[in-house]
Every structure is written in structure tokens, then in C-alpha cells.
């Protein structure tokens, strides 16, 4: 190999348990991805795999398990919302990460102007996305979404790492202007 070639392994070299242990050590924000299925019923799931892809055009990606109600709704509708949970929304994160049959009956939610479900009380930022690309990998799809609208409210993010929840505490070294600039 000349240092520029990608080495592809035939078999996984790490176990599922090792993969989970590694990723648990990477704290991240917590979001609930929401969409409407073909019948117009809201679907949603907790997701920590939300990533900025590009500023031009403004694009993010989410990774959703193939066959989940949310993944199916996103594929059917071609759109989804990202609800970034605030620090007091742990119960909502847990609700949407499990098999609860009527998740939306247990939280207050609203329809955005475009009809997507937003978590009215538990999100401090919401983004609406149009699906622009889908890549399948293993048991998940990487779904790219072009941002078509963003709403932000005051709040601090809910974080998850080391298999527990925490609330973002901005550094005491950063002044208010620095914190605002970093969040933009």
C-alpha cells in the first residue's frame, strides 16, 4: 500500500460489544428524528447520529435503522425533522428510544407549517429537511437531508455518553458572545 489506498477488511475485526463500548465513550447531543408515514401518522426515534455534512447547500445526515417505523416514514415522505433535545428532556429521549406504541400521545407536539411533527416542549432547536440522498450500509441507512427551515429557542443541549445523560455546561472560560458564536 502506498499510504493513499483504503484497506478493506473481509471480516469485521471488532465485535458489536467493542463497537458499542467505543461509541459510548463519544458524548454527543441527543435528537429525535420525526416524520409522517404514508397515512399521516407521526413517527419518531431518538438518534445521536446527526452530523453536519456541508454548508453549501446546507446539509446534514442522520443514520436510521432499516425497517424502523421512522426510517420507513422518512423514505415514504421524503422529509424529516430533527428535534434537538434540551437538557430537561431526558424522559422524552428515553421514550423515543424504546418500543413505546404511542410515543406522540405521551408528549406535546405540533405540526410545523410544512406538516412535520415537532416536539413542542422538549426541543430547543428544530430543523426541517428534504431527503437529498440515501446510502445503505449494513442494517442502517445514511439519510442526507437538505435543510429547508430551522427554528431555535433558548436552551442547553441534552448529551449522552458513557451510557448516561448529562446537560451541556458551557465553559466558564467562554464569554456569552463566545458561546453564542460557537452555537451558530
Structure keywords:
3-stranded antiparallel beta sheet; alpha+beta; 184 residues; globular; disordered C terminus; 7-stranded antiparallel beta sheet
Count of discrete alpha- or pi-helical segments spanning 4 or more residues: 4
List the helices and strands in order: HEEEEEHEHEEEEEEH
Quaternary structure:
single chain
Which percent range fits the helix content? Answer: 10-25%
Strand percentage lies at 35-45%
How would you characterize this protein structure?
This protein has 184 residues and is α+β, with helices and mostly antiparallel strands. It is 18% helix and 42% strand. The protein has four helices and twelve strands; from the N terminus they run αβββββαβαββββββα. A seven-stranded antiparallel sheet has the order 3-2-6-9-10-5-4, with helices on both faces. Strands 1-11-12 form a three-stranded antiparallel sheet, with no helix packed on it. A two-stranded antiparallel ribbon has the order 7-8. The model is unreliable at 178-184 (pLDDT under 50).
Amino acid at each position: 500500500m502506498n499510504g493513499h489506498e483504503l484497506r478493506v477488511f473481509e471480516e469485521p475485526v471488532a465485535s458489536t460489544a467493542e463497537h458499542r463500548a467505543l461509541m459510548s465513550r463519544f458524548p454527543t447531543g441527543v435528537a429525535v428524528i420525526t416524520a409522517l408515514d404514508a397515512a399521516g401518522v407521526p413517527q419518531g426515534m431518538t438518534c445521536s447520529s446527526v452530523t453536519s455534512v456541508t454548508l453549501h447547500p446546507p446539509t446534514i445526515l442522520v443514520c436510521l435503522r432499516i425497517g424502523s417505523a421512522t426510517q420507513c416514514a422518512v423514505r415514504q415522505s421524503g422529509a424529516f425533522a430533527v428535534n434537538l433535545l434540551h437538557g430537561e428532556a431526558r424522559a422524552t429521549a428515553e421514550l423515543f428510544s424504546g418500543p413505546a406504541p404511542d410515543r406522540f400521545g405521551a408528549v406535546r407536539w405540533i405540526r410545523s407549517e410544512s406538516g412535520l411533527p415537532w416536539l413542542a416542549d422538549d426541543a430547543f432547536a428544530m430543523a426541517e429537511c428534504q431527503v437529498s440522498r440515501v446510502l445503505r450500509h449494513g442494517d442502517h441507512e445514511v439519510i442526507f437531508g437538505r435543510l429547508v427551515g430551522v427554528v431555535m429557542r433558548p436552551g442547553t443541549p441534552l448529551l449522552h455518553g458513557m451510557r448516561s445523560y448529562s446537560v451541556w455546561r458551557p465553559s466558564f472560560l467562554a464569554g456569552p458572545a463566545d458561546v453564542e458564536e460557537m452555537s451558530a
